[in-house]
Amino acid sequence: MTKINPHVAILVDSCSDVPADFIAEHHLYMVPMTIAYHDEIFLDKVTIDPDTVYANLDKEVPKTASPTGDLIAKAFADIKADGFKEVIAVCISSGLSGTFQQVEIAARVSGLDVSVIDTKNIGIASGLTAILAAQLSEEGLHKVEIEARIRTVAKHTKVFFYVPTLTYLQKGGRIGRVAGMAGTLLNIKPIISCDDDGIYYPVAKVRGEKKTLLKMKKLLAETIGNAQRFNLAVADGANHEIAAQLTVELHELYPQAEHIFTGNVSPALGVHTGPGLIGLGVQILA
């Protein structure tokens, strides 16, 4: 069991896609997004899983929303009850979600010393920032040191992902600068990332899945460059076979990587991407 640092708690939203086993082992606190169908509301990763979302997309595309004030307040109350006084809250991009703003508002009345981090990123790229924060907390760093470090590293953390169709990004209004590609040539696979403002943009346009995966690995290599220390991640949305294949390849290509994290994208993200997503994340540490 990892020793919990008694000074700094780490809070993360569900769409940051920190792997569940890491959250459990390192005692992170998670606040879930909400997923609303016409007759029922679910809590992201708590009362609904990705497969359930994908299985029902043809019948209904639900509405997603940032964590409610009550959910965030409960998370802060749990943190306080566990004896923490200081918190670092890591959130997905404010350019894609209102979560950062919601957590900031709740933090002001939490009775805790909270720093809220807008990663300007999505999914596991945001999650890598939370993972680093937890590791630094366990090393005994003070809150101000952890915050400074993760703010710097977050600027050098990227995710590259593709989805088989842009349909769900369009329906959810999260398409950002990728909008101009909607309805383009058949079998074109846009590789998407977040820009400096945390908005989706197309990094590359590739025809066919095999060439898309090759291009994603090339983008990963270019991002790593001559870095001496880095973490990698593979995320998928009901595309487990390709994710497993890529994970093996990354272990072979980058045995020096400090960690290679794997996991599903959250149900709430799955609403906006649909099934089939593959994402590669990279976090440059030094």
TrEMBL record:
A Pfam family per the record: DegV
Domain of life: Bacteria
One term of GO molecular function: lipid binding
InterPro entries xrefs: DegV, DegV_C, DegV_domain_contain
Keywords attached to this entry: Lipid-binding
Coiled coil: none
Function: May bind long-chain fatty acids, such as palmitate, and may play a role in lipid transport or fatty acid metabolism.
Name by which UniProt lists this protein: Fatty acid-binding protein DegV
Species annotation: Loigolactobacillus coryniformis subsp. torquens DSM 20004 = KCTC 3535
Lineage start: Bacteria, Bacillati, Bacillota, Bacilli, Lactobacillales
